[in-house]
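Exam prep: given the inputs below (a chain plus zinc ion), describe the expected output before reading on.
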Amino acid sequence: MANLNQGADPAALPILPCLDYGRNVVAYVARCGQSAGERFYKCRNHNPSGGGCNFYKWQQAYADHLASPCPAAPPLAQIEPG
Ligand SMILES: [Zn+2]
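Solution:
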């Protein structure tokens, strides 16, 4: 946990569009609790209990997601012409 503050500025992580929703995820900072001050990233359509998206990642998980060897497909690639 302590090593989250080492290295690059955590705010420098790029914002990517959510694959489910096609719009950029939003970065938040936790304001209370044990994780206060830590960033997390959430889809604008986050609502897993209501049929929405379940994209919700803490800083480290989001960094891992960005570093994934499988690149995210651009949203346009999911649209088939015709
Ligand atoms: Zn989403």
